[in-house]
Design brief:
Layout lengths: L11 H9 L7 H9 L15 H12 L3 E6 L4 E4 L19 H4 L4 H14 L3 E11 L4 E14 L5 E10 L1 H4 L15 H11 L1 H13 L3 E5 L5 E4 L1 H11 L9 H4 L4 H15 L4 E7 L7 E11 L5 E10 L1 H54 L4 H27 L8 E3 L1 H7 L1 H8 L3 E6 L7 E3 L1 H17 L5 E12 L10 E10 L6 H5 L18 H11 L3 E6 L5 E8 L22 E6 L3 H13 L2 E6 L2 H9 L6 E5 L7 H11 L4 E6 L12 E4 L4 H14 L2
Parallel strand pairs: 12-14, 18-19, 18-20, 20-21, 21-22
Antiparallel strand pairs: 1-2, 1-5, 3-4, 4-5, 6-7, 6-10, 8-9, 9-10, 11-13, 14-15, 15-17, 16-17
Helix pairs in contact: 3-8, 7-8, 12-13, 12-19, 13-18, 16-18
């Protein structure tokens, strides 16, 4: 062709340079920027002077969809692709062609040793969720990345640079529900690899090294399900789960021919990818005789340079351990939520019981007064007796609420559980009826447990009644007690050690999982309206916890239920529990009683009882008012005070007045029915109470001398 006059003249050098930068032609925005970039300002110099290894590496990373940055030369000059650019924020594009220290300065003390180690040892550095402190958006932040740093050989065989394939995992690490980003996303891997194998031996070696050294699992299939490519990590995974390794050219259909179910699952996924669909899937694969693992797999279409679809490839990752850890975390969180719910319900029911006791105290006291004085005729006395019976039932209900809230009064002493259970056999048989076959099994030599025998008897009776109701057509009820050792992994969360375990097992209808989940919640009941309070199991649960033990329940529909009450063993010698003598209401030695309670109705009924017992009663509504009465000259012989009141508590009042009046007799009354905050040497009485119970407490107080 003859050049015409006026045509532009291209020098031979310019034409050659234009050809030499052709490797940047398919590099997207970064490729275009590199072609127009002023390389005279970069330590690398113009691209046509770069080594073939550098050109090949840059061509590969520009075409890749993965986030890739190359740090080349001793100054670690940065070259990266479109996918990587957003990850460095405002540092792009000034980082292009510049030494890394200029734009990664805030993390250079962290990054530089990693890069130097890879250059020096030629060993790949890989890490998952590695933290890096970066300043990419005008402020500092800690980001997390999956990284793979590999040494890239230069033309002379020395290390030319470090190729960094990265994937940011910051959002998942900070708590959002995301799966790990795939370590590497290679598009057109096989087509590029096959083409360049024929064209450039050096490039083939470079790409093969990158693929083989990554931790990600990479494989590609052609439309006939034959392997076009597979790296060592992926072949290792097949070896682990199937006991054999595929190689390039093998057929997936032949490889899994002896496992048709596995083949069907695998080909169903590959068929979608071979049909042109790009997707991510999490699936479990493997022969149980070897191993079963869960993989996160990203499938993409494999295309030739002209865009023709020639197969599909995937990048995968074994996520079995991560999913198991997530499942364990979810289970622990659910257990924590359940514990918090039960604690909140316990606080609520404890508060309700306290207020209810304050309401019951004047009711019980006045009904008792009406009965003792014989007020009204026969009909009126019958109505009063009925009301008193209802009040006692309400009192029992409150005790069960307090048991669930772990605020019931307990007299924990060494108890012979074997004897206690054996002695209850006849009572349980009469309670459950003739349709229930009751068996009691208690071995000799069972160690004593620390417990309140009255509460344990009530608990066993409650569990037996529940078992009876679960066997409407009859069945078998087995009550046993054994000494058992708790290991650290025990499902009850008990501290390791030896316990006495009381078991109540029935052959009834059992409970499904949903019912079992709510079984110990207060007021939850599967019985009909009016047939139960829903407090039986919750009371036993609270009792066990208050004694330092636990309650465990195993049940399934149609297979019966077993409830186990675990009690800590006693290291003291079992003794005899002194029975509290029944006190006949009679006047006590006369004197002045200072009555302190912030509830007017409680004061009214208690004052009436004290007057009947021969005391002159002085009433106050607070501890502060009571102290003022004493300061003004009042010298009481007896102090009867509520424990929990606004301001100073009754216990604090009693201790203060004892210092002023040493001979003062003190009786602390509590609506919570527990000893928390009450000094052990102060006598206590639980609301609600009748006149005879108040008289008994005062008689014992007088006998003890205060």
């Amino acid at each position: 062709m003859t050049r015409r006059e006026g045509d532009p003249v291209l020098s031979e050098t310019t034409a050659r340079q234009s050809i030499d930068v052709g490797f940047l032609s398919d590099g997207g925005e970064l490729g275009a920027k590199m072609r127009t970039f002023d390389w005279s300002t970069s330590p690398l110099g113009p691209p046509h002077q770069w080594s073939q290894a550098l050109k090949t590496t840059v061509s590969m990373l520009l075409a890749a969809q993965a986030q890739i940055v190359l740090f080349w030369g001793p100054e670690y000059v940065a070259l990266y692709n479109d996918a990587y650019a957003p990850g460095i924020g405002a540092n792009h594009p000034r980082a292009l062609g510049r030494p890394a220290i200029e734009n990664w300065g805030e993390l250079w003390d962290d990054l530089e040793p990693l890069l130097s180690s890879v250059r020096r040892t030629r060993k790949t550095f890989a890490a998952k969720d590695r933290p890096f402190y970066v300043e990419r958006h005008g402020y500092g932040e800690t980001s997390y990345w999956d990284v793979s740093y590999s040494a890239v050989p230069d033309d002379d065989g020395s290390v030319g640079g470090v190729l960094c394939i990265v994937s940011e995992t910051t959002e998942r690490v900070l708590g959002e529900m995301q799966l790990r980003a795939s370590e590497a996303r290679y598009r057109e891997l096989n087509a590029t690899l096959e083409q360049r194998v024929a064209e450039r031996t050096a490039e083939r070696h470079l790409l093969a090294t990158i693929v083989e050294t990554t931790d990600g699992q990479i494989q590609a299939l052609d439309p006939n399900y034959r392997w076009l490519a597979i790296n060592a990590s992926c072949a290792d995974a097949y070896q682990r789960i199937y006991g054999k390794r595929p190689k390039i050219g093998d057929s997936l259909q032949e490889f899994l021919a002896d496992r048709p179910d596995h083949l069907a699952a695998a080909t169903a996924l590959w068929a979608r990818a071979l049909g042109g669909e790009a997707f991510t899937s999490i699936e479990e694969f493997g022969d149980p005789s070897f191993d079963r693992r869960v993989y996160e797999m990203k499938f993409e279409t494999l295309r030739a340079p002209d865009g023709t679809r020639i197969g599909a490839f995937l990048t995968g990752m074994d996520v079995t351990d991560r999913l198991e850890e997530q499942a364990r975390l979810a289970q622990a969180e659910e257990a924590l939520r359940q514990a918090q719910k039960m604690e909140a319900m316990g606080q609520l029911t404890g508060g309700v019981a306290h207020d209810f006791n304050n309401l019951l105290t004047p009711i019980v006291g006045l009904l008792d007064l009406f009965q003792r004085k014989g007020i009204g005729g026969e009909r009126e006395q019958r109505l009063i007796a009925g009301a008193a019976q209802a009040a006692e039932r309400a009192k029992t209900l409150v005790q069960r609420l307090l048991a669930f809230a772990r605020r019931q009064p307990l007299q924990a002493v060494p108890v012979d559980i074997g004897r206690l259970v054996a002695d209850m056999g006849e009572l349980i048989s009469s309670t459950t009826g003739p349709q229930i076959q009751v068996t009691v099994d208690t071995p000799e030599g069972l160690p004593e447990a620390m417990a309140d025998p009255n509460q344990i008897e009530m608990a066993i009776l409650n569990l037996s009644v529940n078992a009876r109701d679960a066997m409407p057509d009859g069945g078998k009820l087995r009550i046993s007690a054994k000494a058992r050792t708790v290991e650290p992994a025990h499902g009850s969360d008990l501290a390791p050690g030896t316990y006495v375990c009381i078991s109540v097992a029935d052959t009834g209808i059992g409970m499904d999982e949903a019912t079992l989940t709510h079984a110990v919640e207060p007021f939850f009941s599967t019985k009909g309206i009016g047939q139960g309070t829903g407090l039986g199991l919750s009371m036993v649960h609270g009792l066990a916890s208050q004694l330092g033990g636990a309650l465990t329940i195993t049940s399934s529909l149609g297979a019966g239920t077993t409830v186990e009450l675990w009690l800590p063993i006693s290291h003291a010698v079992a003794g005899t529990i002194d029975a509290v003598p029944q006190t006949t209401l009679r006047p006590l030695p006369a004197g002045t009683a200072l009555l302190v309670d912030d509830e007017p109705l409680v004061r009214m009924s208690t004052a009436e009882m004290l007057s009947e017992l021969g005391y002159r009663v002085v009433e106050t509504g607070s501890a502060e008012d009571a102290l003022q009465r004493v300061k003004d000259g009042l010298r009481p012989n007896l102090l009867v005070t509520d424990h929990l009141m606004p301001g100073m508590s009754g216990t604090e009042l009693g201790l203060t007045l004892r210092n002023q009046i040493p001979e003062l007799q003190i009786l602390v009354v509590s609506g919570y029915a527990n000893n928390e905050g009450i000094t052990p040497d102060l006598s206590r009485l639980t609301k609600p109470f009748r006149s005879d119970e108040l008289a008994a407490s005062l008689a014992n107080l007088a006998k003890a001398g205060g």
